[in-house]
Amino acid sequence: MSYQLNFHDLVPYLPELGQGLLVTLELTLYATVGGILLGTLGAAARTSRSRPLRLSAGIYVELIRNTPFIVQLFFIFFGLPAIGVKLTAWQAGLIAMTVNLGAYSAEILRAGIEATPKGQWEAGRTLGLTRFQIFTRIVLPPAFQRIYSSLVGQCIIVMLGSSVISQISVEELTFSANFIQSRSFLSFESYLLTALLYLILAVFMRRGFGLLASYVFRSQPR
Amino acid sequence: MMQFTDWDILRNLLLAARWTLLLSLIAFIGGTLFGLLLTFMRTSRRKPLVLLVRGYTELFQGTPLLMQLFLAFFGLSLLGIDVSAWTAATLALVLFSSAFLCDIWSGCIESLPKGQWEASRCLGLSFFQTMRYVILPQALRVAIAPTVGFSVQVVKGTALTSIIGFVELTKAGTMLNNATFQPFKVFALVALIYFMICYPLSLFSQFLERKLNVSGKH
C-alpha cells in the first residue's frame, strides 16, 4: 500500500471539530434529560390501569422502535412543515432524539417497573398512600436502579445515532467531519479522527453515568 | 413533468424496499458467520484472542454506524479497491452486525453455569466437543430471541446506507420527495413500510422469548 495517512494537515481544522463536538454534547444532554422524562411518562402510561393510555403508549413505543431513526428525523424535519409545524433543523434534530430515546427508555423502564414485587404496592396502599405516591416514591426509584445500565447504554446509542442529524445540516460532529473532508480531501483521516472522538465520548458517558449512579443510588442497598 | 399518483409513490417505495430486504439479509448472514468466528475466539480463553475480540466489539459499539459506513467507503478506496456504495454498505453492515451478534452470543454462553465446562473437562471432551455437544445446544435456546431482536436493528441500520448513495427504501423516499414535494405522505409511507418489516420480527422475538424462557424451568 503506497498511501500514507496524513493527520498533520487536519490540525488547522481542529477548532471546527471541537465546535461540532460541543453541539453533539449539547444535543445529547438535552435529549437524555427529555428522553428519560418522556420515557418515565411512557412507562407510567404503559403500566397504568387505563386501557386507552396503555394502548396509546404502546403504539408510540412500537412505532418508534420499529422504524429507523433517520426516517423519524426526515418525517419530523421535512414532513411536519407540510402540515404547518415549522421547525429549525436543530429543533427537529433534538425532537427526533428525544422522541426516540423516550420510546426506548419507556420500554426499558417498564421492565424495571414490572419487576416490582406486588407486596410493595399492597404495602403502600395499606399505609394510605395514593397510587401516584406509591409509583413515584416506592416503585420508581428501585426500578431505575434495576435498569440503570441498559438505560445508560440506550443514551449512548442515541448519542451515536445523533451523527445522522448532520444530514439535515445541523452542525454537529459528523457535519464538521463532512465539512473538513470536503476542504482537505483527507476523507479517511477526517472520519477516523471523528470516529475516535465518538468512541471517547461514549467511554466518558459510561464513566460519567457510573459516577452519577454511585451518587444518586448511594443510600439504597444493593 | 411526470405526475406521480399515490400508487406510483407506493409502487416505487415497495420496489426499493426489496433492496432494503436484500441488504439486511446479506448483512445478517454475513454478520452471523463472522460473528460466530468472533464468538469462538472470545470464548477460547486465549488472552490475546479475547482482548482482540473485546477491542473489536467495543470499537463497533462505541462508534456511529454512519462513521463505519464512511470509513468503509473511503477506506476501501484508499486501498485501491474501486468501491460501489453497495460494497461499502455490505462490508460495514457485516462488520457492525458481527460485533453486536458476537456480544449477544458470548453473553449467552457465559450465562451458562461454569460447572458445565468443568464437567465436560472431566469427561475428557475437547474444546470443540464441549462446544458442539454441551454448550451450544443450551446457549442456542437462550440466544435465539435476542438474535431475532437484533435483526430489527440490522434492517433499521440499512437505512443509513442511503447517505452513501445506496438506493434503498430511505433513499427512494428522499428521491420521491424531491420529485413530488409531498414529504408528509412520502416519509409516512417509508416509515410504514419499515414498520411492516420490523414489527413482525419484534413480535416473533417477543414470542420466542416467552416460549423459550428457560430460566428456572428445568
UniProtKB/TrEMBL annotation, chain B:
<dbReference type="InterPro" id="IPR035906">
    <property type="entry name" value="MetI-like_sf"/>
</dbReference>
<protein>
    <submittedName>
        <fullName>Polar amino acid ABC transporter, inner membrane subunit</fullName>
    </submittedName>
</protein>
<dbReference type="InterPro" id="IPR000515">
    <property type="entry name" value="MetI-like"/>
</dbReference>
<feature type="transmembrane region" description="Helical">
    <location>
        <begin position="186"/>
        <end position="208"/>
    </location>
</feature>
<keyword id="KW-0813">Transport</keyword>
<keyword id="KW-1003">Cell membrane</keyword>
<feature type="domain" description="ABC transmembrane type-1">
    <location>
        <begin position="17"/>
        <end position="205"/>
    </location>
</feature>
<keyword id="KW-1133">Transmembrane helix</keyword>
<dbReference type="Pfam" id="PF00528">
    <property type="entry name" value="BPD_transp_1"/>
</dbReference>
<keyword id="KW-0812">Transmembrane</keyword>
<feature type="transmembrane region" description="Helical">
    <location>
        <begin position="20"/>
        <end position="38"/>
    </location>
</feature>
<feature type="transmembrane region" description="Helical">
    <location>
        <begin position="85"/>
        <end position="105"/>
    </location>
</feature>
<dbReference type="GO" id="GO:0022857">
    <property type="term" value="F:transmembrane transporter activity"/>
</dbReference>
<comment type="similarity">
    <text>Belongs to the binding-protein-dependent transport system permease family. HisMQ subfamily.</text>
</comment>
<dbReference type="GO" id="GO:0043190">
    <property type="term" value="C:ATP-binding cassette (ABC) transporter complex"/>
</dbReference>
<dbReference type="InterPro" id="IPR043429">
    <property type="entry name" value="ArtM/GltK/GlnP/TcyL/YhdX-like"/>
</dbReference>
<keyword id="KW-0472">Membrane</keyword>
<feature type="transmembrane region" description="Helical">
    <location>
        <begin position="59"/>
        <end position="79"/>
    </location>
</feature>
<dbReference type="GO" id="GO:0006865">
    <property type="term" value="P:amino acid transport"/>
</dbReference>
<keyword id="KW-0029">Amino-acid transport</keyword>
<dbReference type="InterPro" id="IPR010065">
    <property type="entry name" value="AA_ABC_transptr_permease_3TM"/>
</dbReference>
